[in-house]
Amino acid sequence: MFAPRQSYLRRAPYNWQHFSEKLRDLSQKRQPMTNPVQPTLNTPPVPNGQLVVVVGAGGGLGTAVAQQFIAQGYSVVTASRSSEPPCHGATWHCPCDYSDDGIAELVNGVSALLTEHPLSLARLVICNGVLHNERIRPERTMKRLQRAAMVEVLETNAVVPTLCLGAFTDLLVKAPAPKVAVFSARVGSISDNRLGGWHSYRASKAALNMLLKCAAIELQRLNPKAAVLAFHPGTVDTAISKPFQRGVPEGKLFSPDFVASRLLTLLDTLPEGHELAYLDWDGKPIEW
Predict the structure, then answer these.
(1) How far is residue 106 from each of residues 113, 157, 192, 204, measured CA to CA in Å?
(2) Could you tell me which of 262, 249, 98 has the C-alpha nearest to residue 165?
(3) Is the pLDDT of residue 237 over 70?
(4) Percent of the chain at pLDDT above 90?
(5) pTM, whole model, 2 decimals?
(6) What pLDDT shows up at residue 36?
(7) Residue 235: burial class (beta carbons within 10 Å; 0-12, 13-18, 19+)
(8) Would you place residue 11 in the very low, low, confident or very high pLDDT band (cuts 50, 70, 90)?
(9) Cα torsion 110, 112, 114, 116: sign
(10) Which domains does the chain have, with CATH numbers?
(11) Is the four-CA dihedral 41, 73, 168, 26 of positive or negative sign?
(12) 7 burial type by CB count under 10 A (0-12 exposed, 13-18 middle, 19+ buried)
């Protein structure tokens, strides 16, 4: 146990040494579902042995992404701040507070799975992000900028996803042809910014895009078959968009399941070795 340096981070107690016991407990608590993937410690749940890691799976869209992978028969590891799995059927779950130690614990757990089971890392999806909470509101003017809010937005939207991606580098290098998706946003496009406002959120997503570009270049050198996607999900009907849904055009407010299915399709069609794509939910490129 450790004391997080940031007061807003809380770590759910978890010990990978008790992995077997926790997994059995979770499997007994899960409710039955249609064609569920049954967790097991002896054999991989799917014949092809493909493993997916969904980081930030506790939000509405992250949960939907994990569920879609489960429905397609992948072995899935979910990570969220909660000690409980975010969705039924998750093969493995690791609580994570996204501190350095928390991220390292997650990666070590996934590494152990890959060592102990005939699995290969096929997908890494990083869903972490914040637009607003009880402390933060998107700024409409420079006068509303606050240091603490800016730091928290940049930490959550740019620093944490990049640290997670960096921590998984060694596993991605060893994987046959891994595909990585990180949730970005259209407002992270500098060339597309014609309205201003939302300073911290825009800046955090623009910073994320640059960090992903650097990571993708490095990953391409280390594993030429790896591919990275900066994904704009559009406006999704989740808690993050609730205060801003009034102005969304008809037909442009998407369900989490719809966006999750689009993401999985984009990952399936993303060519091996594609350095970095910046795409929206419809597969259309976004200018940087």
Answers:
(1) 11, 19, 36, 24
(2) 98
(3) yes
(4) 69
(5) 0.82
(6) 26
(7) middle
(8) very low
(9) negative
(10) 128-280 (3.40.50.720)
(11) negative
(12) exposed
Distance CA 288, CA 275 (A): 15
Is 288 or 1 the better-scoring residue by pLDDT? 288
**CA dist 197 to 10, 97, 98, 142, 192, Å?**
30, 30, 28, 8, 13
The model's confidence at residue 241, banded by pLDDT at 50, 70 and 90, is: low
Tokens 């009880």 sit at which residue?
Answer: 134
| pLDDT given for residue 10 in this prediction | 32
Amino acid in position 54 = V
Contact between residue 223 and residue 178 where contact means Cβ atoms under 8 Å apart: yes
- How many angstroms separate the CA atoms of 102 and 183, rounded? 20
Token digits of residue 207: 């910073």
Name the CA dihedral angle for 213, 215, 218, 220, rounded to a multiple of 10 degrees.
Answer: -70
pLDDT at position 28: 41
pLDDT digits (tens, 9 = 90+) for 12-56: 333 434 433 443 443 344 333 332 222 333 334 544 689 999 999
Closest C-alpha among 288, 280, 279, 238 to residue 130 = 238
For 154, other C-beta atoms within 10 Å of its C-beta total 18
What does the mean pLDDT of the chain come to? Answer: 84
